[in-house]
TrEMBL record:
Record-linked NCBIfam families: PRK08241.1, sigma70-ECF, SigX5
Taxonomic superkingdom: Bacteria
Keyword Transcription regulation: yes
UniProt entry keywords in alphabetical sequence: Sigma factor, Transcription, Transcription regulation
Protein name: RNA polymerase sigma-70 factor (ECF subfamily)
GO biological-process terms attached to the record: DNA-templated transcription initiation
Signal peptide annotation: none
Amino acid sequence: MADTAAPAADPADDLVRARAGDDAAFTRLVEPLRRELHAHCYGMLGSAHDADDALQDALLKAWKGLGGFQGRSSLRSWLYSVTTNTCLDAVRRRGTRALPVDLGPSSERTVADAAPRTDVAWLGPYPDGTLGAGPLAPDARYEQREAVELAFVAACQHLPGNQRAALLLFEVLGFSAAEIAEIMRTSRASVNSALQRARAVVAERVPDRTQQQTLRELDDDRLREVVTGFSTALERGDADALVALLTEDVTWSMPPLPQWYRGLGPVTDFAVRVPLTGCGSWRHIETSANGQPAVACYLRGDGSDVHRAWSINVLTLRGARIAEITSFIGQEHFPAFGLPAELPPATNGTFVS
């Protein structure tokens, strides 16, 4: 039987159709770039929700302004110009996002009744399930997953918007200084200055080894032992099992709670007093966030027969131990990961894999 599948649309033809008002053709043009554009928005804004809004706004601007695209650069470059400037507008309106470690020193004593801070724009987790493993451009320094790692994104939040944009466009996406100057509507000298300043700030805040480098040195079985061991220790209230997984200088933070803990003693005391004994029953789903292993936590309180979404716990590893636990508390984080808001009563044990 002859192959009757429709031939793939020609991008040049789709561009003509899109300029004539064909929204399906425009969708075909931008769809291959949508995921990387979204990751770029997250790198700029530090929030998956803000990235959704910014990308939607940028693509609407691109659709309306497609007639002004003259083809002097690639469509990808033009879309990054529209998207980057949309994000810069958002940065000017909303400011930057933070983690608890940015707000002050660690707490030496456990705060069991901590209240969330609503006056802080908090950094959020990023669902990375469809991100590619390789660089977006041959001369990009950071791989796609490295570019959304918590340490890198948090460091970028300490940069002014123009420096943040220049760094991401150059180091992650592989644009040249001349291309970035056109994208950001500035001079090449300004771009080079912004890059120099941005690199200095980021170098002080990002570990020498990325999580991707660490994870590549761990075999799958050992990684699963660490992640499953963390989940099981919380579910069973097993402090010894949890401590065995942690580095001596481990940190645990829980945005939007401002308190955070550093060191095996304070972290263990917090774990014993709060999640291991003071919250209720836990169940977990293993996932991935920010290019790192993560665990979605579900909590069942008194008088309830279901476990409800509580936090996305992003684990930062050093070797085969957990060096940082960042618990992003809030049900609002779960939909982006495709995770349910609650789990029904378990029929075979309590662990959900």
